[in-house]
Write a structure and sequence with these properties.
There is one protein chain. This protein is globular. The strands form three sheets. An eight-stranded parallel barrel has the order 1-2-3-4-9-10-11-13, surrounded by six helices. β10, α8 and β11 form a beta-alpha-beta unit. The protein is an alpha/beta fold. The longest helix is centred in the middle third of the chain and has 21 residues. It has two domains: 385 residues, Alpha-Beta Barrel (TIM Barrel), CATH 3.20.20; 53 residues, no CATH class.
């Protein structure tokens, strides 16, 4: 029996997410993203299938790199229109008991105190089932929408992120002591002022002097996700992340990246097991291999290459409508470094090479077949690359996840590779089996005040 795998459903509060053109499929319901019932039904489906979490991507800005304008993105629904991911979490949490919610929030456009309050509020409302995917942004259009001329340099964004994290840990972990909230009706004391402390920070990028506005939530600090793959991003993840989301199509190369990440974590005083690693994957599954392959071929016929190239252009920070210029420019890109690097070192990035493979799920491996074949593949990837689980991108919403619940989950459970029941407790407790708060090896722990 191999390791127990964890599964996240990968989605976004928009049409299509990473399956460009598939909104036209007659069974796809991703265009219902504006409906609360759509999200509540999805959450119930995922909990029925014992998924660990719904991982919600997000982006602030438009994909305007391809062709130098937003026309393709708007025409093809390339992650636009897109609604706020945080606002759909409370109704999904009310409809479920165990499902976690990992939400992407770009710290580059967030004042620290309001953000800390939103995360604490979500942690309260979900009974401790919230996680935060820490991102620094990659679209110049997002920076312009926030009042800047363009994004700051890639590595500087991680310097800003480090300072932002220091403030968040101070607010979440150190501002309110355990026991600060008394709720004493007899004395009329709700909160003991002596146990509430101001967070004072004056750095290069942020200045704050305030107490946290929220009383301590079940986890205090949400479960920290990160997906940086550049040297600066990997170091940031090794220092801060509890869960790391990675991409790639070569398990051997992925194993090297995972080993480097875990080694760095040890250098920062953490343990290798302090980080869970999730890989991107797309699963197309049916009762037989033949049925699954036929379904996959049908899905491929709906892929929009212009839409996919618009998405990839935004990720890479280069215009893939001009392949030769894109290949040259990718070497100095200020966007997602791993995507830009793949363009820079690859063959001419035409629609055939880039568009089709990325068009169904965002560029991770597409695993197609009956339950045995898919489970074999996932188990082999996890063993070779030292993975703890997978972020499963959908092709058709919610059909992809419904098929996994019906066909894949029972096979994984039969092999002892997947949980039969959820652990009790918060999202962090379900993932790691320890207490609801970050462990003592995590840098957030030094912001805690001694018990008194």
């Amino acid at each position: 029996m191999g390791r127990e795998l964890r599964l996240n459903a990968f989605a976004m509060n928009c049409v299509g997410h990473q399956a460009q053109g598939l909104w036209r499929h007659p069974r796809d319901r991703s265009a219902e993203y504006r409906s609360l019932n759509h999200w509540v039904e999805l959450a119930r489906l995922l909990e029925r299938g014992k998924f660990d979490a719904l991982f919600l991507a997000d982006v602030l800005g438009l994909y305007d790199v391809y062709g130098g304008n937003t026309d393709t993105a708007l025409r093809e629904a390339v992650q636009v229109p897109v609604n706020d991911p945080l606002l759909i979490i409370p109704p999904m949490a009310q409809a479920t008991e165990h499902l976690g919610f990992a939400v992407t929030c770009n710290l580059s456009h967030e004042p620290p105190l309001p953000f800390a309050r939103r995360m604490s509020t979500l942690d309260h409302l979900t009974d401790g089932r919230i996680g935060w995917n820490v991102v620094t942004g990659y679209l110049d259009s997002g920076a312009k929408a926030a009042g800047r001329d363009k994004q700051v340099a890639h590595d500087v964004r991680y310097d800003i992120a480090q300072e932002f994290m220091d403030i968040q840990y101070g607010l979440w972990e150190g501002s309110w002591e355990n026991g600060a909230v008394r709720r004493d009706r007899e004395t009329g004391v709700f909160t003991d002022p002596a146990k509430v402390h101001r967070v004072r920070h004056e750095g290069e990028y942020f200045k704050i002097d305030s107490v946290h506005l929220c009383e301590p939530s079940p986890q205090r600090t949400p479960v920290i996700y990160q997906a940086g793959s550049s040297p600066k991003g990997t170091a940031f993840a090794a220092r801060h992340a509890e869960c790391v989301f990675i991409g790639g199509n070569e398990p051997g190369k992925m194993a090297e990246d995972v080993a480097k990440l875990r080694d760095l974590a040890v250098e920062f005083g953490r343990a290798r097991s302090d980080i869970l690693v999730f890989a991107l994957a797309t699963v197309v599954i049916a009762a037989t291999d033949e049925e699954a392959e036929a379904k996959f071929a049908e899905y491929q016929s709906y892929v929009s290459e212009p839409g996919t190239l618009a998405l990839m252009s935004g990720w890479a920070g280069v215009d893939l409508s001009k392949p030769e210029q894109a290949k040259t420019g990718a070497a100095s890109s200020n966007a997602i470094q791993s995507v830009a690097a793949s363009i820079a070192r690859g063959a001419e990035p035409t629609g055939r090479r880039v568009g089709r493979p990325v068009g169904l799920g965002g560029g991770g491996p597409a695993i197609v077949g009956a339950p045995k074949r898919v489970a074999d593949e996932l188990e082999a990837w996890a063993e070779e690359a030292d993975l703890d689980g997978f972020n499963i991108a959908y092709v058709v919403m919610p059909e992809t996840f419904a098929d996994i619940v019906e066909h894949l989950v029972p096979e994984l459970q039969r092999r002892g590779l997947f949980k039969q029941t959820y652990r009790l407790g918060t999202y962090r407790e379900k993932l790691f089996g320890d207490g609801p708060r970050l462990g003592e090896r995590h840098p957030a722990a030094r912001y805690r005040r001694p018990e008194r």
